[in-house]
Amino acid sequence: MGTETTTWVDLIRHGEPEGGRRYRGHRDDPLSTTGWAQMRAAIGAEERWDAVLCSPLLRCRAFAEEVARQQGLPLHVEPQLKEIHFGDWEGFTPTELAQRDGERLAAFWADGERHPPPNGESLTEFHARVASAWQHWTDRLSGQRVLLVGHSGMIRMILASVLDLAPSRAMARLYIPYAGRSRVRLDDTEHGRLGCLLSHGLTP
């Protein structure tokens, strides 16, 4: 009989960036003062991990670096965990974009696999790259407790993989607040990997 290995991953979305709510995508805005407070409030002083994994974008990486430094942990920065590329929509607030391109925006949220942002990334492409990175790092960090600092869309794509959801459904129907946390348990058994969402959307 084979042995089982359990991996725990705590997913946390970055806090509020400077400039407030926007379709940022690959735009590299830092956390605001409020965003830093949200992130620090979301992590308990007694919590410990074995490794920290993050997107390279500053709104994720800066806090990941702080946690890794404070706990003396290895930090892994993965480019494939960037947010979806919103193309021509990057930098606009939701209100601005609804006024400028409301019909295409509605089509994206209804089915982002068929209606990607103009000059941006389709949900199919986005899900494929995030899922590939997720598989790579959960294999490499198997048996550990991992803190993953990322983006709302990125976390949705990971949960789509864990819960076997269509990317468009996960993107439109899973709410990920600033500094919101989810926990995933992965059990590698002789029958394959079993994934389970233990908690979702917790905020400070």
TrEMBL record:
InterPro entries found in the cross-reference section: His_Pase_superF_clade-1, His_PPase_superfam, PGM_Phosphatase
Classification via SMART domains: PGAM
Residues the record lists as binding substrate: 59
Protein name: Phosphoglycerate mutase family protein, putative
Active site: 14, 83
Cellular component aspect of the GO annotation: cytoplasm
GO MF annotation: an example: phosphatase activity
